[in-house]
Amino acid sequence: MAKNLKTIVLAAGKGTRFKSAMPKVLHCLAGKPALHYVLDVAEAVGSLTTYVVVGHQAEKVADAVGGRARIVVQSKQLGTAHAVKMCAPFFRNDAGTVLVMCGDTPLLDRGIVRRLAVKHEKTGAAVTVLTCLLDDPFGYGRIIRDAGNKFLAIREHKDASAEELNIREINTGVYCFNAKKLFSAIGDIKANANKKEYYLTDIIELFLDRGLGVETLVTDDWTANLGLNTRADLALSEDILRQKILGRLMDKGVTIVDPSTTYVENDVSIGQDTVIYPCTYIHHDVFVGRNCSVGPFARLRPGTRLGNNVSVGNFTEVSRSVLGDDVNMKHFSFLGDTTVGRGANIGCGTVTANYDGKNKNKTLIGPGAFIGCDSVLIAPVKIGKGSKVGAGSVVTAGRDVPAGKLAVGMPARVIKKV
Ligand code: UD1
Ligand code: CA
Description:
- 19% of the residues lie in helices and 32% in strands.
- By secondary structure, it is of the alpha/beta class.
- It has two domains: 5-225, Spore Coat Polysaccharide Biosynthesis Protein SpsA, Chain A; 231-417, Hexapeptide repeat proteins (UDP N-Acetylglucosamine Acyltransferase, domain 1).
């Protein structure tokens, strides 16, 4: 953990190539906005205060930040150096480290950033740049070194010579700065002659002119700097993230029959020996117990909790519902805003009608209840403990089925004890 580290996240840019009405840093990967991943990294490395520089659609981005960071407005996007400079008032007399990251790099690994901060503090350099070796360095700033491998400059793609374009080591856009040195030099950066923007990357040469140390940390993790510049980048990043999430679940003893067709978002817990069959989508904020069977073709939506030994089979959707231990729901059914007691059986084709056009209403299905095939339960309604609903019944709102009784028909009526 870095000792005295604050963070600046650059998120004011327009993201023209992304072609989106919504700010690109708010696009979700595995159920979470890109910007939140970057804030996670800042928190994981122990950032004391984090500043997010906003500009394009500033209010929306600020809303998404919530209380997790302070907002700094850059009203005109005059370049990355200009964006950092907007934070200068907050760093007067600050002798600590400033970590600079971009808001559109959700795959950035916290371990690498921690190593960057540690190296930076150890060497006492004015800046330590996270660099990466890429097979295709197109578009990135190139790391210029002399024959002795000494770090000399960062050259933007547009400004690079033919020879420099062959360089495979690139600037990831992640840096640790000495706060004092950063803010005493940032105002001296001149606008780039080609683009009329102030480039943060020009600070390397400025530091060297002043006899200050500049360092790099080279990572071979090419995903670390994968920015969301296009929709194709979004899809690729999502895929990489998804495989990481599935990998972590498999490490915990979950069987994923086909990782290429299984989608699990962030903030999902799945117990050991549960089997996830192909073509299943599990949203964020879902808990699945041990020894369950989910899918194929199942969708578990946010707020779903499955106990142990639960079976949720093909063509099923569960939303904001709690299924107790040993519940079976094996074939095409929908449960929304429902609580199902232990050992209940949800017959094939059961639907809870939870939405009346205005409100979402609750359904309670007692332990050991048996819901016959093709039944509709119109919420709000309660099906008692150990009761039965005959196949094809429609249990209307408020017409609760008492414990231990059989109800059939449309509308369903209690006809006898079970
Ligand atoms: C930048 C680096 C480049 C590096 C690449 C890594 C510069 C000049 N170049 O290029 O060396 O290889 O990142 O991805 O820094 N932003 C603002 N305000 C501005 C301009 C940009 O907040 O006025 C933000 C953007 O929202 C973005 C980040 O800064 O999050 C980087 O800007 P971008 O224009 O994407 O820079 P690149 O051309 O990718
Ligand atoms: Ca970029």
